[in-house]
Amino acid sequence: MTTHRDTSATPHRRLNEPHRLDLTDPDTLRHLWELQRAAYAVEATLIGFDGIPPLHETLQELRGCAESFLGIADETGLAGAVSWARLDDGTLDICRLVVHPRAHRRGIATTLLDRLDAIESADLTLVSTGTANHPALALYQRRGFTPTGKRQIAPGVTVTLLERKTDAPPSEQPVHKS
Which of 23, 41, 84, 87 has its CA 20 to 30 A from that of 35? Predict the structure, then answer.
């Protein structure tokens, strides 16, 4: 059972279970679009760069993306979402992880990533985040991701590339009888 922590002074809002988001539904699409705009505005402030592509994505571009989505809601509405794509070699690529600013520090990102791990196993999972987004980097590193490099996206702005490899089962050791 996953517990959700609420360190804010506002009353605890009950979270629903993560569920698949259907971007063909206009209301779902609009709520996701509004959520990611709010979430990426926070990241833009953290990394000092407002050119994050999903921050400027249109509804049509979001609907047309080739990603699968899970979302989680509270009484106020959609509070977080994660999206992913499966690469040809089986690698899982986490494309977006967004939490509404009103819902920070409530375990939403962890709950979404737990559910994603449960439904989409992978030997290799990739993710990237703004290098100056220390909360996101800490979250991924707590989940076993290790930095593999950085990529400059604008002058003075980089994203950190991370990966997590699933441990292969230990090879069977021969049993020696004396």
Answer: 87
pLDDT tens readout for residues 117-153: 999 999 999 999 999 999 999 999 999 999 999 999 9
What does the alpha-carbon distance between residue 164 and residue 172 come to, in Å, rounded to a whole number? Answer: 23
Phi, psi of 10 (to 5 degrees): -80, 155
pLDDT digits 0-9 by tens, 9-22? 344 557 789 999 99
Q: What pTM was computed for the model?
A: 0.84
Q: Is the dihedral of CA 36, 138, 84, 4 positive or negative?
A: negative
Using alpha carbons, select from 146, 178, 174, 142 the residue that is nearest to residue 161.
Answer: 146
Q: Would you say domain 19-165 falls under CATH 3.40.630.30?
A: yes
In the DSSP assignment, the letter for residue 52 is -
137 CB burial (10 A radius; 0-12, 13-18, 19+):
middle
State the DSSP code for 147.
E
